Amino acid sequence: MRFRTNTVTLRKTEPYFWLSPSIILLLIFLMYPIIFSVALSFFNWKGYSLEIFADFIGFQNYVKLVKDPLYWLSFRNTIFLVITVIFVQNAIALFLALIIYFGNFKYGNLIRALIFFPGVISAIVIGLVFRKFLELTGPVNTFLKLIGLDALAIPWLTNRNLTIWIVSFVTVWQWVGYNLVIFYAGLQSIDHSLLEAAFIDGANLQRSIFKIVLPLLKPIIFLSAVLNFIGGFRVYDIIWAMTRGGPVHASEVLTTYMYYQSFQSQGPSNMGYAATIAVTLAIIVLVFAVIRIKFLTREE
CATH no. for residue 192? Predict the structure, then answer.
C-alpha cells in the first residue's frame, strides 16, 4: 500500500520535475527583473553604486513622472505609433489579404512571401538601411534631385514634424506582412459554402465581404489589433537605429526614453527613474494582455 501511495505521489510530481528548468529560467529572467524594477522605482539609484537600495525616496519618482514633459511627449508619440500600427497596418494587411485570397493569383504564395519577408529581417538592419536611404545625401534625395524635385530633398530624419511619421511608416512596412498572414489564415478557415450560398442568392463580392467575411473575421481582427497594441508599446530597436529618439526627442517613445534615462540622462545614469517608466509601461501592456486573454476565452 505504501509503495502504491509513493508511486501515485511520484506520478503527480513528475510533471513539475520536467518543468522545473523552464520554471527556474522564467523566475530568473522574467520574474526577478520585474520585481527588481518595481522595487527600484522607489529608490534613487544612479547605477554606479553597489548600494542599490540605500536611498529610499518613496513615490518621488512617480511624482516626477507625472510632471515630466518629456515623458508625456514620449507617451504621445507612443500612442501615435500604436494607433498607426493598429489602424493603418491592419487596414493595409486586411486589404492585401482579401485581394490575394479572392484574386486567386497564380503566384499568390510568392506575393505573400515577399510581403512577409521584411518581418523576418532584424529591425536594427531595417532601421539602419532606412536611415541611410533618408540621409541628406542618400538615395531618396538623390532621386528627387535627379527628377527635378530639389525642393523636396530635405533632411528627413532631422525634421521634428516628420520623424515620428517616418518611423511609424517604416514600422508598418516591416510588420504588415505578419498581419497579412494572420488575416489570410482566417480567410482560409471560413466555410466556403457560406460564400457559395451568397453568390447563388445573387450577392456580389463586395456585399459578401462586408456581410459575411468581415463579421466572421471580427475575432481575428480584434486579436491582431491587441497584438499590434502591445507590440507598438514595445517598439524600440527600429526607432533607436533610425533616430535615437531625436531630433530633440521628437521621435522619443516610452522605450527609448527609458533607455535615455538609464544611460544618457543626468550623468552616468538615472536607473531609479527609468525603472518607474518601465513599471508604467509594463502596467499598460499587462492590462491589454488581460483584455486579450478574456476576449479569447469568451470567444472560445
Answer: 1.10.3720.10
